[in-house]
Amino acid sequence: MSDLREETLLKLSIAATLIVAALGVSMGLWTGSRAIVFDGAFSLVDAAMSAVSLLVLGLMKSYALATARGQRLEARFNFGFWHLEPMVLALNGVLLMAVAAYGLINAIESLLGGGRLLAFDLALYYAGAAMVICFAMGALGYRANRHLNSAFVKLDAQGWLSAGALSAALVVAFALAAVIADTPSAWLLPYIDPAILALICLVLIPVPAAITRRALSDMLLVTPGDLRARVDAVARQITAKHGFQSHQSYVARVGRAEQIEMYFIAAPDAPARPLSDWDAIRDEVSAALGNAGPDRWLSVTFTADPKWSA
User: Fold this and answer.
1) Confidence band (pLDDT; 50, 70, 90) for 1?
2) Which domains does the chain have, with CATH numbers?
3) Could you give the CA distance from residue 214 to residue 93 in angstroms, rounded to a whole number?
């Protein structure tokens, strides 16, 4: 049900994003505002990556189901599709930062060229409507993600709030332009649009950085400290309780998946046990670790030769 809810949110987000993007690009070209064109382009990139996220979610959902398609996917991709999630998140973050950097370059170029006049009244109407839509979608995403805890939904909601902040800045800038239009400060009007675009881009560039950094860590299989501490605590407890000589563990977090390998080294002369005893210890390890589900990959191995744990 959580996957279905996740897909529903992303589909709604894509539809809303396409509407905002189409309005932004057309209104930006009509009024001559590069800031509004950038707003539309930013939304288009966000919509494209939301569509890719939706595709990955569909693959992950199909893989987990006991259907003919799920069985075919499992036969071709034994380790699942978890690795696609950080790849999509990293690509999304890099693209959003690249779009913002390109917008900043355009804004600086326009400022150095003397700026440009535009129809501030029409631009103000668009910015106000876009701001309401963006903040509403962002609030919806963050509220739903309290239960879903999805990196996809989190990044999507973050994108909506960033777009809403961009639109809010446009509202302030265009309202200011309307106020000073008939004053001695009217000479500033050509510079308002590129100046606000530059400011927005400077603010937006670092926004996806945290998620991009986390995604890259997942792609590189950087060991997460919290997961390592939890696994080691359980390993020490099992080692002491069942009289093993030592233990070794390897952990990684790939998107929403936890990958855990645990090795328990027994004494070479330890008495033999029925296979059911070893399976019971595995069940004990699984229960102690918690978070059992389709997104956890757990392997528990028992050996008397330490080389098999290295």
Assistant:
1) very low
2) 2-219 (1.20.1510.10), 225-309 (3.30.70.1350)
3) 11
Radius of gyration from C-alpha coordinates of the chain: 26
Q: How far apart are CA 55 and CA 67, in angstroms?
A: 18
Provide the CA 200 distance to its chain's centre, in angstroms.
21
The answer to whether the beta carbons of residues 134 and 164 sit under 8 Å apart is yes
Here the tokens at position 111 are 């400022």
CB 174 within 8 A of CB 118: no
Contact 16, 156 (CB under 8 A): no
Average pLDDT taken over every residue of the chain = 82
Contacts 24+ apart (CB under 8 A), 21-24: 21/47, 23/126, 23/129, 23/130, 24/126, 24/130
For residue 257, list its beta bridge partners: 254
Pairing of strands 296-303, 257-265: parallel
Q: How many CA atoms lie within 13 A of 215 on its CB side?
A: 22
Which DSSP category does 191 fall into? H
Helix (H, G, I), strand (E, B) or coil at 143: helix
- pTM of this structure: 0.69
Output the furthest CA–CA distance in the chain (Å, rounded).
94
* Contact yes or no for 211/154 (Cβ under 8 A): yes
Phi first, then psi, for residue 257 (nearest 5°) are -95, 145
Q: Which of 234, 230, 235, 227 is nearest to 251 (CA)?
A: 227
Residue among 207, 159, 191 nearest 34 (CA): 191
3-state secondary structure of 33: coil
